[in-house]
Task: structure prediction
Amino acid sequence: MSAIVTRFAPSPTGYLHIGGARTALFNWLFARHFGGTFRLRIEDTDRQRSTDDAIGKIFEGLQWLGLDWDGDVVHQFSRAALHAAEAHRLIAEGKAYYCYCTPDELTAMREEAKANGLPPRYNGYWRDRDPAEAPAGVKPAVRLKAPREGETMVQDLVQGEVRFPNTELDDMILLRSDGTPTYMLSVVVDDHDMGITHVIRGDDHLTNTARQTQLYLALGWDVPAFAHIPLIHGADGAKLSKRHGALGVDAYRDLGYLPEAMRNYLLRLGWSHGDDEIISTEQAVAWFGLESVGRSPARFDFAKLDNLNGHYLREADNARLAGLVAGQLAKDLGRGLSEIETARLHGSIEGLKARARTLVQLVDSARFLVAARPLALDAKAEKVVAAGTPGRDRLAALKAAIADLDSFSAAMIEGAARGLAESTGAKLGDIAQPLRAALSGSTVSPPIFEVAEVLGREETLGRIADVLGA
Result:
């Protein structure tokens, strides 16, 4: 197989959405699997809707996902003159022609076709007419002189052989009447000039591929291999919308998902490797092939993403997670964390991450480590240590039992709690839960004796005293 060159070519008219991210991933994996090249092209020919902010968001999203591209980024708009030159070459070769139809005439054609039960297409009015008959003052568009008989066949690497009757493909516009190239022309010229060997994109582009195939052949160029992957639907099978998860990649980052979890999840949206669900990026590069892409729409499921992200959180390096959590806590607090707070966070992260599915949950569960005293207790915690309850009495007894421990370690604190439980006929949980409420403000936390050790003697006894009012 010759050197593989793939590309991701988003339009910078909005955020990098989840479908685009998956397309980028598949192109990246295919190129990396074969030791090929993965290029990035920004299709910014729509000057009114393309923005620098959107371009920045695309770069940021790809970088966060860890999808590095090769070579310089190609900006399509800067190549408009090259695109136009190829259209004029086709005119010179008799493979394209000037079309002088006005917008009103084109509308009338479409209406007539619909009235006759035909698809609303251009009828080729100027295809074989003499340009000398052109009306004065009308700037022409340039159209491809597409074949009218037979069919155009796409040998797709996912969909198989797909045939399009040429009667269904009209003479598409290559240059608009103002001389600007259309998307269809620009894409073909750019893919050829960039040496793209494989075009992997959504199956909503299949008809475009048939038209582009005609253009490749007219230009005398080799047609790249095409692979059209099914679109992503919601868990209910409906077309993906914002309520299903059709968000920008930056939104998933802000929702607390790890990039490695997103890569794994996007990979499994339409691609499979046996029954494997947890697939590292290294395995994905080694295993990826288009033959394992399914033909049915993939279904986006937040519950599965949460479960997968929880797995990657548990596997993640503690120092890395502590750094991410510290950054968010500092942002929320409007100040940097102290050395003591940072040490608490690093000491607790192993226990905290075991219960979290997202970084947002992890940050929320770590807030008690940096909270100002006295802590605000949630309703359940308040109930555990309310005045007159056994929990409050047990908390007071535990405070006395641990105040003068020789070593304020988790093992020593737990030993004191067990001793108290045995002497009073209580269960260990009956002693631990009031302590958890006092130290974390909640009834859920990492192992509470480990939390007490991380907080240290002074802070632990202080938080208990805050609750007891003594």
